[in-house]
């Protein structure tokens, strides 16, 4: 019988801390990247390639990592991912040429492919179906909080040297890896892993991709791609869009992103579970896609700091509620294939993170409004797919939680 979240506070805190530390490490380096770029004499193209290398390596490794999570266990993948992340940050901080930096970013992508599916599967293992939405909301909040706090801490640490944020990120990731080694316990038995391993021998990357397009998963994975595509296109272009269209300063842009993220975190922690109970995962996903699409179009027609702040807050909130709702829905459909589903979730996210910024940047050069328009169109396409969403038994997905609440 699965214990309640209250009875597993320590384990959940460690899992959330691992996710928080990983994304804190990512956020730490954001403020110093422009200065580091000048220090290393890197071109804009090189910086773009560094981002792409991370996403591509995560894309390639994610399907395999998902199976390894099922076959080898959740704990070993979490600890391995944290050690690899620590190594990648250390290498980046010590790097003296672009080739070394590419290696670092590739390792960073691998670490993300290891950590995210493992933590998601671990959470699914130790929570009941009733408490899972709340737990997934906490995971999403930990990610957002890492991004919020990271840049501020990174800017402070950078006063001690432009490479110090990388070393600090490496240190805290190493600390998390060591603590997880001694505190976390493997949630699935050796017998279950043997069964998964015997099944895993019959699978390949292409078989996993084929499995992911089954009706039970396909629509959810398409929405995962749509979310990653829309969010990455929106966020990548946001600073350029705000600068070119509104003349906002770097401080203005940072204020908008920070306040929007804080609002999203608070709502995730306080209201996400209640929203799922009221609307169901599918209902919440549809609501978020509708709001996100409308406001993506609205973003091309507004002006003024306060108006942009309000619209951006709501869009970020929609994205941050959509992510855990999707993860929860996929987790419920996964059964004993939690690692596989979490790995493919990461794969489709990586695809969106690769194509979203690339297309967004290309469209921005044509017309600064086009990236937001295409993001809105993709969200409407995702909304259309939710209308034909099939459940595990082949029937149309209903807003079960919301219906129960209504009854």
TrEMBL record:
InterPro entries: MFS (IPR011701), MFS_dom (IPR020846), MFS_trans_sf (IPR036259), Sugar_transporter_CS (IPR005829), Tet-R_TetA/multi-R_MdtG-like (IPR001958). It is found in: Cell membrane. It is a multi-pass membrane protein. It comes from the Bacteria. The chain crosses the membrane at residues 12-33, 39-64, 76-100, 106-124, 136-158, 164-184, 216-241, 253-272, 284-317, 370-389. Keywords: Membrane, Transmembrane, Transmembrane helix, Transport. GO terms for cellular component: plasma membrane. Its main location: membrane. Residues 11-394 form the Major facilitator superfamily (MFS) profile domain. GO terms for molecular function: xenobiotic transmembrane transporter activity. The keyword Lipid metabolism does not apply. Signal peptide: none annotated. Gene3D superfamilies: MFS general substrate transporter like domains. PANTHER family: MAJOR FACILITATOR SUPERFAMILY DOMAIN-CONTAINING PROTEIN 10, MULTIDRUG RESISTANCE PROTEIN 2. Belongs to the major facilitator superfamily. TCR/Tet family. This is Multidrug MFS transporter. It comes from Rummeliibacillus stabekisii.
